[in-house]
Protein 1
Amino acid sequence: MSTSLTSTSTAPVHRTRVVILGAAGRDFHDFNVVFRDDPTYEAVAFTATQIPDIEGRRYPPDLAGSLYPQGIPIVAESELTDLVEREGVDVVVFAYSDVRHEHVMHLAERCVAAGADFRLHSARHTMVRSTRPVVAVTAVRTGVGKSQTTRYLARMLLDLGLRVVAIRHPMPYGDLAAQACQRFATYADLDRHDCTIEEREEYEPHLDAGVVVYAGVDYERILREAEQEADVILWDGGNNDLPFYVPDLHVVLADPLRPGDETAYHPGEANVRMADVVVIAKCDSARTADVEAVEASVRALNPRATVLRADSPVTVDDPSAVEGRRVIVVEDGPTLTHGSMTYGAGVVGARAAGAAQIVDPTPYAVGSIAATYAKYPNARGVLPAMGYGADQVRDLEATIRAAVEAGECEAVVSGTPIDLTRVLSVPAPLVRARYELREVVPGGLAAAVRSALPLSILGAHSGATSVGSAS
């Protein structure tokens, strides 16, 4: 067997050699809760995909634990076959999300052919149990409506007089050791932690609602700290990943604009099968036949789940700045990339506000934006808010500026959940398109919350506003 990529201080004669396939999120969590302190395993490497500039770094010793004094290397997923053969890898663990079932199995075939077993961890083996009730929000795909549902549930819980802390699925794109456990209570915290656009999109709406947010890398440590100031933990899932914590109420979003995806993507199908409640979102934008098809599919996968329908109404802050004008629409990046959508709330809002034309920014794309269009041609026609780092933010700004200076763009409609003017400037009016959750038949989620929360918590706050529609 060749020399290991990692160095251990005291190793058994044989340790099962593991590679973890990831995207700077679940991979780190699975390592932390399954492998970190187990001397019978040796994590040889993580691989990276989906997120730019992750490979070439190391999972730091402070997070990797005493068995890994030099940390663990992170390499590109494209090196997988060579890595398995060169390092004598015994087991490859798949640990990222929002990919087709065929994608997972093609990776499995590569590993099997190279001589390694292939493993998917179950939710039961990777979820941490909290001392507080946990309401988890997950989905079948990226871009289906988790964010507005999480906000809706947060308002509902706050109306009960409960202290609500949101814990967001990881987005650790910077210094991993420094990001081990992060707490966000103010916009100043976002600046202090050098948050990317991707992080701000998820954190800012919670802060606006008065909800403290935790995120980072070490999710057991994060949970224990959050529990100190929470009556209820709200798990705000990323992509279509499984919850990191054992939920008392598991709410899963399904998308009638992408019917069939609830059975085609990993681990979204598992979420549906595990769900207590499935919310079919965007019913106001979808065909009735597609809503009905998704509902039938969900009921076949999980007959015990409560199935609810909801609209996702979009409003534009200043329609007069959009009406009759040629606009560029900025949409949430992951929704367009691995989410496979061609548009989002921004386009819906621009059309409703009477935009004369939605300008295709592709001819003006700069740097990483041009690279995104090359990799994800479905994103052309709108502008993905690819904000994983300062360079991408500059490219986003430069793309808009080029279109404005060419006389093609008179205004910008932003469908991202944040105020983009906090991180970039453009020489044209920028108008936000906002979206919320609206139950078709109000009260379904309130009933689910009442059933899930312990009577001791509900009784302790019986003087607060009763759980209602959170409208």
Note: The first helix runs from residue 26 to 35.
Protein 2
Amino acid sequence: MISKNRRQLLLATAASTLAPWSNAQSIYPNKTIRYVVPVAAGGGADMIGRATCERLTKVLGQSIIIENVSGGGGAIACQNVAKSNPDGYTLLQAYVATHGTSPATRKLNYDALKDFTPVGMIGTAPNVLCVNPGVPANDVKTFVEYVRKQPGKIAYGSAGAGSLTHLVGELFKQQTGLFMIHIPYRGVAPANVDLISGQTQALFPSLAGALPHIRSGRMRPLAVTGPKRHELLKDVPTFEELGYKGFDGQQWYGIVGPAGMPQSIVKTLSEALAQVLAQQDFKDKLSSEAVALMPLSPDAFAAYMKADIERWTKLARDRKIELDS
């Protein structure tokens, strides 16, 4: 039997061993946070990360360093973060590719759900069905009729195989029963060029990327994804209101960390993010990228990512989309 003095000594030793980690949690954050953005510097996703971190820095009272880690559709960044210490000092800006479409279509070296700790959602942005102005259709119904009369002659572009622009196009084909040729590009920019020049007839880009071309008249919008019409395209209906049930593929952005982050740290970060999302200037800033803020708790964000992966996995299976890398 352990004596009373011996028991007290053991408890004291255990407490002193745990003290540094407990103190580290209680005063989090007490050093610079690394925020990994899985795309190259510049562009909408990078801007969202920088705008978010600029305000998180003020709320948390600690500096945050942006690290752009591009490559592999975000896979390299995801592997980097997943292997990091789950102490709250390495975070990842997750988005629809890293925790939505890529897990549904590719063999990855990370598990999008098990290898990460959700912190919260930042916001969402719709995709929009755009056609070349030369296409004789001003609405989705007329476009469907136009394509149906020319099987195999109408092509839609995408930012690449397995991208959201690809899968939204396949979802449209599935729900309409149409046959359109898919032409994947290395990014949405060349896909935009070929749609504008008439090499392709349709594209399903993000609203942020398409908006300048829509405003200049070089692209014609027919419908947007998402639950309601977008304030920047109030005259353009949603697919849902046109009768395409469950047509809800959207760009989205959020924050995750490595699996196993302490709940106290997750709570601190989640509450800080909520304060950022409540700031009107932040809302105004992201509206320039057609992003609508969408505050979600860590649990709700986890459920959102799970549902998104399941949605695209089912579509990829139905359309026989499986990519090696």
Note: The CA atoms of residues 47 and 258 lie 23 Å apart.
Protein 3
Amino acid sequence: MSAPASAPPRLPVIRGLLLVPVKDGLWRVSNPSGMVLGHIERRTEADGDRFSARRLLAASRTMNVGSFWRIDDAVDCFR
């Protein structure tokens, strides 16, 4: 028996950033001009959901910024 799916998080509204759903539990973070800044991924762990932020450094390189309990904190890494 698998664990029940978590409810989708409330996406924060941050001026100057857009969150675009890529698939269930993954969002692309971009600026208003469309430049992709990185991604946020939701991971369900034993103690609850965590949101990992990855900043895009080049076309195929990313850097893990951190893992957060709240999606708002993960998004804040891109400001």
Note: The radius of gyration is 13 Å.
Protein 4
Amino acid sequence: MPAINTAIDTTLVLELITSIQADLDRLRGMLQPPAQEFDPADPRNKTCDGKLTADGVECCYRLFDAGHSRYSVARAMKISFAAATHRLKAWRKAGGQQRQRVRLG
């Protein structure tokens, strides 16, 4: 019986692995939710006495901009429903979605 040559070109295999990994990363990115530009649970959104900082107020307003309810804003920001209601009224008074956005950070 003749010997079978089983030598594998490693560069081709490595290119194939790289191609497959790139496809998997692209698919993973399609399945993951988009990263938020702000974090409602960020501890910097509140002062040490529990009041919202300027960034916390803007974060709250952006949640309202996105169509969240007072209840969901209260849960996300870890504030009371009454505080979320107060912020909703202030958001509406500031112009709602037409208000001037403040830069976070």
Note: The chain is about 50% helix and 0% strand.
